[in-house]
Design a protein that fits this description.
By secondary structure, the chain is mainly α. The chain has one domain (6-184). The chain is built from ten helices and no strands. The longest helix has 24 residues, at 21-44. It is globular and about 50 Å long.
Length: 189
């Protein structure tokens, strides 16, 4: 999140919310680099030979954001990046659910995936379903996982986006990891 100017994004968002189409285009152009980094991180965690490319993931996420009226609802840039991470998550899940998609059921330790150790073949649909259940119980904790895993954000960046302390994110992260382990059948260490 450090590659862009927060003031510039905020100003573009205000103009885009007022209906300025050029500002909307400029806003997504300014966000593209960070969204591309997020997508690249996500795709490195996918199975070998995955046919969806990071740029296609970003493009689909942008389309979802535009179709979903995200600009009109966005209070600030933090909301936009959270919505982008969620749009990428939904795109990957929809892609995995397509007929003929190879589904892997190897269960991987969530902490290792998020730490970026290069592990692959996570059952993205099972993770999505578990995250939906978690979000129904506690929306913020579900968003913490979405931002950390699908957005590739650090604890500090996640806290900034959610407008909470890093201690709150750390606690939510610990709870969510334990809860997801139990839901995905991953043994506790």
């Amino acid at each position: 999140m450090n590659e862009h100017d927060p003031g510039k994004l905020s100003a573009l968002l205000v103009r885009a919310r007022s209906g300025d189409a050029q500002a909307r285009d400029d806003l997504f152009a300014a966000m593209y680099g960070e969204m591309r980094r997020m997508a690249g991180d996500l795709m490195r965690r996918e199975r070998p030979g995955h046919t969806l490319q990071p740029s296609a993931l970003v493009n689909e996420a942008v389309l979802r954001l535009l179709k979903g009226g995200t600009i009109e609802r966005a209070e600030d840039r933090r909301y936009l990046f959270a919505a982008a991470a969620l749009a990428m998550r939904r795109t990957l899940v929809d892609y995995a659910r397509k007929p003929g998609a190879r589904v892997f059921h190897e269960v991987l330790e969530l902490d290792q995936i998020v730490a970026g150790f290069g592990l692959q073949n996570l059952d993205i649909v099972a993770l999505h379903d578990a995250l939906e259940r978690l979000s129904a119980i506690d929306e913020r904790r579900g968003m913490v996982v979405t931002l950390r895993f699908f957005g590739g954000l650090t604890i500090d960046e996640t806290a900034e986006i959610l407008g909470v302390s890093t201690a709150t994110v750390e606690g939510d992260w610990r709870f969510a990891r334990a809860w997801l382990r139990s839901q995905l059948g991953v043994p506790h260490e």
